[in-house]
Amino acid sequence: HPDPGPRSEPPTILFVGGDHPNKNRGAVVAAFARLCRVNVLPHHLILVGQDARPDAALAEEFPGLDLSRVRRLQSVEDAALAQLYRQADLFVFPSRDEGFGLPVLEAMASGTPVITSTVSSLPEVAGEAALLVDPDDIDGLAAAMERVLCDRSLWETLQQKGLRRAAQFTWQAAAERTARVYAEALQ
Fold first, then answer.
1. Which secondary structure element, helix H or strand E, spans residue 78, and what is its range?
2. Strand partners, 13
3. 98 Cβ contact partners less than 8 Å away, ≥ 6 residues apart
4. What are phi and psi of 15, to 5 degrees?
5. 3-state SS track over 108-151
6. Sheet containing 131-133, strands listed edge to edge, beginning at the edge strand earlier in sequence
């Protein structure tokens, strides 16, 4: 549920997903490193999910990355994750392959604007309520992140569209659609 209170201090960008290649965590880190080098945004990056690399390897792989602005959480309980979603200024999820993309809906339902991928199921899940980027275009991802964080009107538009989009995905609606599919299959 969205939190009408203030966002976190320092402001944050959130990514939820492990270091599996399809999750594309590296693109998020690379885009954030690029923002750290060329922009004065005060945001920190929170990475949630399994990641075995030590900080030194992360810094070596992503030149310009300010590790003091990156927080890595290996696992987070549901209540804490919900709070991270609500407090983030932006949720970034440039996955290359998803069965559904539940983190996108979780962020939207929390009132957090979303940038996600143009591939797999993510455009269908996000609809017009998120900015879509090529998951392998680091410059495009960094530009989209900067655009959402610097354009308050766009930020508010994505927040409102996201809340409306997430509200369309209910267990009741899923059950009704499933029942229709079964009924059609039996005919």
1. helix 78-87
2. 45, 90
3. 22, 117, 120, 121, 122, 125
4. -130, 135
5. HHCCCCEEEECCCCHHHHHCCCCEEECCCCHHHHHHHHHHHHHC
6. 70-73, 44-48, 12-16, 90-93, 114-117, 131-133
Cα distance between residue 10 and residue 23, in whole Å: 25
What separation in angstroms does the CA of 71 have from each of 29, 86, 119, 173, 176? 11, 17, 27, 36, 41
4 phi and psi, to 5 degrees?
-75, -5
pLDDT in tens, 52-110: 889 889 989 998 899 999 999 998 999 999 999 999 999 999 999 998 999 999 999 99
**Structure-derived torsion over alpha carbons of residues 145, 135, 83, 170, reported in degrees to the nearest 10:** 120
Using alpha carbons, select from 99, 168, 175, 178 the residue that is nearest to residue 127.
168
